[in-house]
Known about the structure:
The protein is mainly beta. The chain has a single domain (2-690), classed as Maltoporin, Chain A (Beta Barrel). 6% of the residues lie in helices and 56% in strands. It contains seven helices and 42 strands. It has a 22-stranded antiparallel barrel. It has a five-stranded mixed β-sheet with strand order 3-8-9-6-7. A four-stranded mixed β-sheet has the order 27-28-32-31. A hairpin with a 7-residue loop joins β1 and β2 (34-35). The two termini are 39 Å apart. 42% of the residues are buried.
Amino acid sequence: MVVILAMGFGVNVRGQEAADTLHEVVVTGTGTAHRLRDVPVQTEVISRRMLDSYGAKSLEEILSGLTSSFAFNEGDMGSQMQMGGLGNSYILILIDGKRIHGDVGGENDLSLIDPHNIDHIEIVRGAQSALYGSDAMAGVINIITRRHAFLAKGGVAAENVTRYGSYNDVRQHDAVGVTMGRATSYTTFQMQHNDGWRNTSQEYTEAMVVTDSRNRTTNNFTNWQLGERFSYALTPSTELYAEGSYYTKGIHRPQDGHYPSCDVYTYDLMYRNAGASVGGRWKSRRGDAVSLDVDWNKHAYYYEYTATTLTDGYDPTGRFTNYYPYFAGQRSLQSDQQRLMGTLKGIVGLPAGNLLNAGAEFRYDYLDAPMRTATGTASDWTAALYVQDEYTPLQWLNVTAGLRLNQNENFGFRATPKLSTMVSLGDFRLRAGWSQGFKTPTTKELHYRYLHTMGSTAFFNMGNTDLKAQRSNYWSVGLEYRGQKLTASVTGYWNRLDDMIVLVNVPEGEIPPSVTSAYGGDGSNAIIARRYKNMEDARTCGIDVNLSYALTAEWSLSGNYSWLDTKAHQYNTTKDRLVSATIDGMAHHRWSAQTTWNHRFGPRYRLGASLSTRGSSRRYYENNGNGRPYQLWRLSTTHDLGPTGRPLSYRVEAGVDDIFNYVDRTMHPYHLGTKASGTTVYASFSIRFQTGKRVKQQINKPNQNNYNDED
């Protein structure tokens, strides 16, 4: 902590970027364009310059290294992410204003997001905007891609980035953009591969410690994704578009394990994702706008068997068994999530300093899981209407009020109001907000069942059709100073959740007899059952402190700190009283800091260097122990070659992560504080070509009815 204090707190600006950030435009909090310093809802930005200097290979590295708001525990099925004490299902992730789709076991596969295609990231904490529904109780992450900047000059633009690092880590990014009159095409490709690593050979199983386990901390994986977006300017104010993407990922696990151990795997994991969207935008000269989007997404994962396996699942009578035989080379579908969503929204300026944002949404979710649900499939639909008004009666005062009306197929109607205010006093901004949230159980929380055997223990996770919808009340207050060189902010928040859904241990009496007979009938296996249940109550509260200072135009210091506390209570039927429960993954303290230096040596070479650190106190879990505290250090460098302003440009990046070789060697299957593999190195080379004339872009000015498409 002494080091953090010495380096300062903050994530917002770097050197020359301090002045630029004063005029940076953000849209996530209100759906309308505001300069960052004047946005009514507290917004945190990770800029493109910060991304360039940090040199991260994944979105997990970006969020954990450049802000203290997030914690991760990466696994085979995705990333267990936490924000403000709440997990994945409470965090809404957007790409250009559109929801990311698909999760496995409550984990989002963030490798869908190519870090080289990110322009900047906007973060809004809590359910503070009426624009977003049930998935935003903890907050919103809006990832703005580089598409607009990539095509800013028109003509043809092409980019190739190749990166290689320790553990045969390969990252490939390619993009081609073409502008032909009114039509534009933007094509992207990404590929990621890592051989995986093992931090320890110790594993606890069958009440003993195995010292030669082959279970890996991170398994071997390969994925690739292809995307295309085509748009056509029907008129200067109207654009139509169509886009699609396809993604595949394979995870290869140890096949040469031995018993007793958890490392005996007889199948690999495979993912198949696809998406398609069509829509249009209309925008008037004065800033009024209307948009319509229709999106379809598919996220499926399979077991690919490498040896003969008796696998668990439901038989035609709805009985859970483990007698289904599969053989090497065969494949079984575990989950196919599909979503169809339509969104209509508009923005109009009204008299007396009012800016109105209104919209309607319809979302249909379909789950096909023949081995994981008693009926094989499940579905759910939600419709919503929202309206939000930004009222600026005085130059120094803004009041934003909104109301969202939600109707769910299974859980009925709910209205959730939002209210925030901002007072501007020179370079100071005082913001306060209150909002309600409403979140219905997902189809997986209601119906999904999953059994995972580890040695002689079977862990059985069960859905619960008796779940109730969750409700939240979120309060926040923050003070920010944003000057030419210094930026400082302190924000406190308190989030109360009623009927919060968590996965908790349940008594043996709640385990279905078919599961007991299949896995524990002969006494050879112990069964630990966990069921999704509603907490009686839960609350999270925290304080986020940010500070950054530009020492010179080339050298800056920054860092941030987050304090968090959570409490939850569950009614224990055996003890006939409320008992405390742990919200998995919570850590009281998280921090990160950075010092960055940039200098141009003549017209053909520019050097950038960044030294950063990130860390966490102990993380707490209900089962399998707590994660150890840690602090990691990272050095990254950038080398821009050739004169500026030319069609062809080159960049070399190189760096080292976990400089002091910290490794958490806690034995399997207990929780880790960090999965860092020790000291790793990386290097990348990028080349970019661009022709065409620069398009003059409108600068969004405050107190105007400007609308900036989230897309």
